[in-house]
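Q: what sequence does this backbone want?
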């Protein structure tokens, strides 16, 4: 959530940056500024009224201590001031709620490096690394390889739950576990502390990281208990620090966690969502940092390099995209996507997003730190997939297929305990 003071003091810049995100309600900015001005006037009126109540109450008290009757004027004044206070307090609450409701409709402002654009085709390719494998003409896509080697049963998942909930079997299940442990070990080497997290969160947590009210249609909702299945570990990890004031020397805070992730993915269909390309439940290791505002873009680059390092160790060709304004999330100020090449499908698959939210989440979370001057200040939050498993598995199966079977990357062999799927 943007800070009202920043919107008020930087109106033109706010409108300019919102335009990069293709925000369609620019008049909302002026509504917020007007509401904030009205709220400030009301606050002054309320404070003056309360000061008059205190002053008049003090005068009445002096009369009573002297065992004298207060004047009729004083008694009329105290009644008038208290009645006015009773009128102003609900007005202030109503105006404050209206301002809040307007504020949550504004997305985060994109960083100055974010390119304009409407669709993924407008994203900028920052770099490309690795050699795309050349497969024979009879090479199979991952869903056929999964069936051939009895690794993943998509139809059984449909029977048990529905489409988008695959069942991993035999070496397919072991590969999943191997990747999870590999990603967690690499995160630990990079200084992240591992946490195990609830898979459901309350509404306050969903609001704190920006999933609510923006993405409720994409989240699974447990109605009887008013809880949401997490779309990513980012939500519970970041909410560990909701309403927390950190010490400056505690920054950066670095956490990682493995969780299943649940996404309704309403409206997703077509060839590009076949197999592991788009699921309702999938496994992911997430890295999250809470940092000093002066360091967040340096940290963002470090987190991107961590993800790229994982892809290099797995032997997967990849490219890095800087997302355009139209393809960014509601909450992000800057997002870099990492995509890996799917050799059998002949297309790039997104496997990670690393985002800097600046103070957007921390303002909602009231996540602060005490700076060198002893004053509280909003921290910056960042998160990244390191990594999401489904499309990594898809690329590993497709890119490493041979006539003898599927070769496991060397770095995973200590985890899988086998070198080949055959």
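A:
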């Amino acid at each position: 959530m943007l800070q009202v003071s920043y919107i008020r003091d930087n109106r033109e810049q706010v409108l300019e940056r919102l335009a990069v995100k293709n925000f369609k309600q620019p008049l909302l900015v002026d509504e917020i500024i007007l509401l904030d001005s009205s709220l400030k006037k009301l606050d002054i009126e309320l404070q003056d009224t309360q000061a008059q109540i205190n002053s008049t109450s003090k005068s009445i008290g002096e009369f009573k201590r002297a065992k004298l009757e207060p004047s009729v004027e004083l008694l009329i004044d105290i009644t008038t001031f208290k009645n006015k206070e009773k009128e102003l307090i609900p007005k202030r609450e109503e105006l404050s709620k209206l301002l809040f409701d307007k504020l949550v409709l504004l997305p985060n402002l994109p960083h100055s490096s974010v390119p304009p654009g409407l669709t993924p085709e407008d994203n900028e390719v920052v770099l490309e690394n690795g050699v795309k494998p050349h497969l024979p003409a009879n090479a199979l896509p991952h869903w056929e390889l999964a069936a051939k080697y009895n690794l993943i049963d998509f139809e059984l998942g449909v029977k048990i739950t529905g489409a988008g909930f695959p069942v991993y079997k035999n070496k397919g299940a072991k590969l999943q576990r191997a990747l999870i442990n590999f990603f967690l070990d690499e995160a630990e080497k990079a200084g992240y502390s591992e946490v195990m997290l609830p898979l459901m969160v309350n509404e306050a947590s969903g609001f704190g990281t920006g999933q609510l009210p923006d993405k409720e249609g994409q989240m699974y909702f447990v109605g009887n208990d008013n809880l949401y299945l997490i779309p990513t570990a980012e939500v519970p990890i970041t909410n560990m620090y909701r309403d927390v004031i950190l010490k400056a020397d505690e920054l950066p805070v670095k956490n990682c966690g493995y969780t299943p992730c649940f996404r309704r993915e309403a409206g997703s269909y077509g060839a590009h969502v076949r197999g592991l390309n788009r699921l309702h439940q999938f496994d992911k290791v997430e890295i999250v940092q809470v940092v000093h505002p002066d360091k967040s873009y340096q940290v963002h680059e470090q987190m991107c390099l961590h993800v790229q390092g994982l892809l290099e160790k797995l032997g997967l060709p990849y490219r890095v995209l800087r997302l355009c304004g139209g393809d960014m999330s509601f909450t992000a100020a800057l997002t870099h996507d990492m995509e890996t090449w799917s050799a059998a499908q002949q297309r790039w698959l997104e496997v990670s997003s690393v985002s800097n939210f600046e103070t957007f989440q921390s303002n909602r979370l009231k996540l602060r730190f005490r700076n060198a001057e002893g004053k509280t200040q909003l921290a910056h939050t960042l998160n990244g997939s390191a990594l999401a498993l489904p499309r990594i598995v898809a690329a590993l199966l497709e890119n490493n297929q041979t006539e003898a079977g599927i070769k496991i990357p060397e770095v995973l062999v200590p985890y899988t305990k086998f070198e080949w799927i055959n």
